User: Fold 2-hydroxyacid dehydrogenase from [Mycobacterium] manitobense.
Amino acid sequence: MPSTDDTAARRDPSRRPGVLQVGPLKPSLAETLRTEYDARRLPEDAGERERFLGAEAADVTVVVTSGRTGVDAALMAALPRLGAVINFGVGYDTTDVDAAAERGVQVSNTPDVLTDCVADTAVGLMIDTLRGFSAADRYLRDGRWPVDGNYPLTRQVSNTRVGILGMGRIGSAIAKRLSAFGCTISYHNRNRVEGSPYTYAASPVELAGAVDVLVVAAAGGSGTRQLVGRDVLDALGADGYLINIARGSVVNEDALVEALTQGHLAGAGLDVFTDEPHVPEALIALENVVLLPHVGSGTVETRAAMEALTLRNLEAFLADGTLVTPVPMPVPAAG
Ligand code: 8YV
Assistant:
């Protein structure tokens, strides 16, 4: 946290740090940005945004945003002095990193601090999906137990074969948890992970064909768009389950709905969707899916840690132009 003196200096208009908030943020973070850093917020309305950029764009040196909104190439082009995009969240697929690299704009995210909570969510979703706890809860509340008798039998979680698509920090944390359930873990990743105790599959289809449950933990973005398509769902098969805690964009949602409604897949547990916060009615109508409103990292502790790391990145950038947790940047194409 900055000292009172620093804060006073920031309020001196000649030393305004040029912080711009893009999109909604955790209220306490937005409040800190406004009161401690004199941040402006980019208007949502197109006309107001244009007027705002006409008046303020040249002052902006750093944007604070979240994975929900991000900064596209057009906004970057409108901010000539932009030096950094600071992203609240580990996923930064809504920020155009190619455009950032070309302009020499740095990007940071909030890795590590949310790994445990997102991995917990994956395991919770998997248990709920296979054991049907949410559906069984609805069955009880609807008064069906005394009328219709015992709830139908479900599927065992322990000792199943689980495939993890994307063996990064979160994928590894999921694997560690499920190993304790006696699950056999295999994975597919862009690159084989040196020294990994888990079995490597050469493709998503090969992975899906070898497991009972496929857990999607790959980062979003152009490199993973619809990696889980019809072919992968077919390979998972009518007894297979899909769990997604990564990004909706990694799964072909139309193909998923089709597989679920036609009985080509046993069930799915989803924390992320293609067009959040909109979820297809066809999914909502199904009993064999568990649907969560993107709550993976949503605990008091983890969101506070994400907020603190976001502010550490901002503080470092304003102090000396560096970032605490920069994301790897693509090498700009030679022009
Ligand atoms: C957040 C997430 O909900 O970190 C991520 O990539 O998806 C979640 O932790 C989101 O980024 C906050 O907007």
About this structure: The longest strand covers residues 62-66. Confidence is low (pLDDT under 50) at residues 1-12. The CA atoms of residues 174 and 277 lie 25 Å apart.
